[in-house]
Fold:
Amino acid sequence: MSQNVFSILPDGYTKECNYLYNFLSSVEDLPYVGKDEDDNLEALLYETAFALLCEEYLNQVAEMPKHDDFEYLIEEIGFAEEEEEMDWFFEKHLEEKSSEGFEEKMFLLLEEYKKKIATSIFNFFGSEDKVKLFFASIFTMDRQGHVPHGFDAAVSSNGFVSDLKLMVK
Structure:
């Protein structure tokens, strides 16, 4: 199983998105890979879902391309190696047992984890403006002081934050 989803998603802002997840996991007690060996698969689901949210944000705000081969993505992250273990998560989190394939179930499961993370984000930050600033901080972590989008990204992220808020409902 791959242990570093942030090296795969989102391309170009690996460290920044990893830092944001580490912050969020510390204030909302979300699992992260390596914290507890028994929970590594669930932690990987949380980290992957957050990385996908970051990728969606970067796509909308900075027009960065999304990963376009989901089947390859879940294989690269290591979920395909854990197909039997994933059945427990499918049964627990997906309302109906789907007769769809593994990839479809993984997509639906990651959508559920994205909802959990969206809920955690809004629980902690409380307002849409603070959520916008949280994600915009991706661009302010450049060590050389070059900020390609800066806090202008917060202003232009209305659609992303609205979509994120819809997940919470």
About this structure: The chain has a mean pLDDT of 84.
